[in-house]
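Protocol step 4 of 6: structure prediction from sequence.
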Amino acid sequence: QVVREAYRVLKPGGRFMCLEFSRVENPVLAAIYDFHSFNVIPRLGEAIAGDRASYEYLVESIRKFPAQNEFAQIIRDAGFTTIGKGYENLTFGTVAIHTGYKF
């Protein structure tokens, strides 16, 4: 697993940080975000890059990534120490910064 490998190669005192698209926790905002993700982003990809399929795949792959609390636990399971929840949501949770420390 990638996170375990990151733990292995980091020196003591090192920090693992990961910025990922995440899950919006507010149900109203989540519905708006999902509509935008599944309807607007692929259409923009088609209009700008001529490639709707890649942008549909992007949105689907974001949905398959573990939720914030699940990924924070993966980081802890790999041996990292987290502070607080282990992540900080940005832009209502559309993205999150996960941080783990190797002591």
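Step 5 (inspection) to follow. Helices lie at 2-9, 27-49, 52-64, 68-77.
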